[in-house]
Amino acid sequence: MTRQERNWLLVAPAGAWFLVMLVLPLSVVLVFSFGERGPAGGYVPAFTLEQYANLPARLTAFKNTLILAPLGTLAALLIAYPLAYQLAVRTDPKWKTILLVLVIVPFWTSILIRSYAWIFILGGRGLPALLEAIGIEGVRLIYTPLAVTIGIVYGYLPLMVFPIYVALDRLDKRLLEASSDLGARPFRTFLQVTLPLSIPGVATGCLLVFILLMGEFLIPALLGGGKVFFVGNALVDLFLQSRNWAFGSAVAFTLIVIMLVTVTIYMRLIARLRLGRDDAQIM
User: Fold this and answer.
1) Measured at the alpha carbon of residue 122, what is the angle toward residues 125 and 139, in degrees to the nearest 5?
2) Can you give the three-state secondary structure of 157-180, one letter per residue?
3) pLDDT higher than threshold 60 for residue 283
4) DSSP character for 135?
5) Which of 17, 84, 93, 237 could link 164 by a cystine bridge, Cβ 3.0 to 4.6 Å?
């Protein structure tokens, strides 16, 4: 057996999985998107662009998704980075495992239960009641974009923490000591040494959270209360309630294209950032 044949043999299982689990379902979605809704719902074969022409009818769902998904990703990053930095750089090794387990603990409970807990916390008998008791009245938190943002940050925070933690944990501490010995202040050391070397972890965490948020539907459904809904909520409505599979497929495929374009641009920016960092180190 030649080396090329061995390579093909090793790639074949992953290639078959990719074909069956990704390419074929996407092909079905693409075909359905050019069809029409049947009299009783479902899908009727056709070739029309009518479904794509109706996309503005779901503009609010796209707008909410494209605003709150990046915003939630950014908020998760701003919270996760200091936490990951504290765990990786400044925490005693004997406590790291315990603290990392505490980060994972929320995943031991269903996201449905955790979301219902936030409904109580943000509802009238939760934080608003506490604020009213100290004299701040008329605060509404539940069923708002803020409530949805809080829910998605809480739900996806561990996925942001761990890639950043791994990148920081692998950081050679001697680089930080060398920077300090050369007279750099802690903040400058962070900007010029720690942050650039942690970019791969930041990129991975942001990518994981952003992709999952683009398809999120449970948290907006519970914490948004039908007032703040994502494309995922629109898809649930189109496929399960109105049974308009053709229009639902057009919405789904449009979301996939938006995600592909966004992720491609993001990865190119990250690659250029890393290339610029490497060139600066060489110089």
Assistant:
1) 80
2) HHHHHHHHHHHHHCCCHHHHHHHH
3) no
4) T
5) 84
Q: Does domain 24-282 have CATH number 1.10.3720.10?
A: yes
- What are the tens digits of pLDDT across the range 198-247? 988 999 999 999 999 999 999 999 999 888 989 999 999 999 999 999 99
Alpha-carbon distance 87 to 249, whole Å? 43
Which tens digit of pLDDT belongs to each residue from 15-62? 999 899 889 999 999 999 999 998 888 999 999 999 999 999 999 999
Q: What is the dihedral of CA 136, 142, 146, 149, to 10 degrees?
A: 140
34: amino acid identity, one letter: F
27: tokens are: 């092909």
Phi and psi angles of residue 44, each rounded to the nearest 5 degrees, phi first: -120, 125
Residue 273 phi, psi dihedral angles, 5° rounding: -65, -45
As a whole number of angstroms, the distance between CA 50 and CA 55 comes to 9
The helix/strand/coil state of 126 is coil
Cβ atoms of 60 and 140 within 8 Å: the answer is no
Written as six digits, the tokens of 152 are 């998605």
